[in-house]
Backbone:
C-alpha cells in the first residue's frame, strides 16, 4: 500500500536502491497523472466535498446540479472519483453530457471509484493526486466535507496566495457550513497571521447559479491571468 511505502521512504535507514525505487514509482505516478490531464480537451472545474453523504443529502443534490450546469456549458468536471459529493458531481456531469474525470486514491477503507467516469486514474500517493486537481482546473467549487476536503481547499489557497498558480476562483458552497471556518480565518487576520486580502480569495454562496457564474466569468474575462493577489513571498521568489 502507498501508506506503507511513504512511511518507508521517510525512514533514515532506507537503502539507496530502495529510495531510488520509491522515487521512480512516485515520478511515474506524476507522469501518468499529467498524461490523464492532457486528455481533458476543454476547460475544467474541480469539485470537492465529502465522500460520506448519500444521494438524498443536500450537498449531493447541489453538487449534481452544479456539475450538470458546467457540463452543459461545455466544461469538464474533475473530482476525486469516489462516492458522495464526488459521485454526485461526476453523475451530474454525465447527465449534462460533459466530460467526467475522476482522480481516485487507494485507501484501506471508504474510497472506491464511482461509475460515472469518462477519464479515470487511481493514485497511490495523495500529493501526486492533489497536483492533478490543480493542474486540470480553471476553478474550484467546494462543498461541505471533512479533513480531505479541507486539505484540498487549503492547498489550493496556499498555491494561489504564494503565487505558485494563477489566481483562479475558489467557491465555497454552503454558507452555514463554511461560516465557522471563515470566522477562524477572521481571527487569524486580527492576530496578523493572515492578510485581509486572503479572505478575498474565497466566494461563499448558497446559490448554484452564482457558483457556476463565478468560475465561468473568471475564465471568460481571463481574470486569473491578472493576479491582483501578490503576496510578498510570491514577489520574492
Residues:
Amino acid at each position: 500500500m502507498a501508506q506503507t511505502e511513504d512511511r518507508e521512504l521517510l525512514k533514515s535507514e532506507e537503502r539507496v536502491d530502495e529510495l531510488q525505487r520509491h522515487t521512480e514509482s512516485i515520478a511515474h505516478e506524476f507522469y501518468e497523472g499529467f498524461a490523464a490531464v492532457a486528455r481533458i480537451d476543454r476547460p475544467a472545474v474541480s469539485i470537492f466535498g465529502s465522500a460520506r453523504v448519500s444521494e438524498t443529502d443536500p450537498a449531493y443534490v447541489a453538487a449534481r446540479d452544479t456539475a450538470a450546469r458546467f457540463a452543459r456549458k461545455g466544461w469538464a468536471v474533475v473530482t476525486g472519483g469516489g462516492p458522495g459529493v464526488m459521485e454526485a458531481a461526476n453523475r451530474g456531469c454525465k447527465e449534462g453530457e460533459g466530460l467526467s474525470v475522476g482522480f481516485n486514491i487507494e485507501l484501506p477503507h471508504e474510497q472506491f471509484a464511482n461509475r460515472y467516469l469518462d477519464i479515470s486514474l487511481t493514485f497511490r500517493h495523495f500529493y501526486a493526486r492533489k497536483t492533478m486537481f490543480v493542474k486540470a482546473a480553471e476553478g474550484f467549487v467546494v462543498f461541505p466535507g471533512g479533513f480531505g476536503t479541507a486539505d484540498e481547499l487549503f492547498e489550493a489557497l496556499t498555491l494561489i496566495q504564494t503565487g505558485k498558480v494563477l489566481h483562479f476562483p475558489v467557491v465555497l458552497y454552503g454558507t452555514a457550513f463554511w461560516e465557522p471556518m471563515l470566522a477562524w480565518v477572521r481571527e487569524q487576520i486580527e492576530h496578523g497571521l493572515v492578510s485581509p486580502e486572503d479572505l478575498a480569495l474565497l466566494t461563499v454562496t448558497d446559490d448554484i447559479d452564482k457558483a457556476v457564474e463565478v468560475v465561468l466569468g473568471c475564465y471568460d474575462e481571463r481574470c486569473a491571468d491578472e493576479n491582483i493577489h501578490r503576496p510578498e513571498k510570491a514577489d520574492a521568489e
Notes: The longest strand covers residues 99-105. The first helix runs from residue 2 to 9.
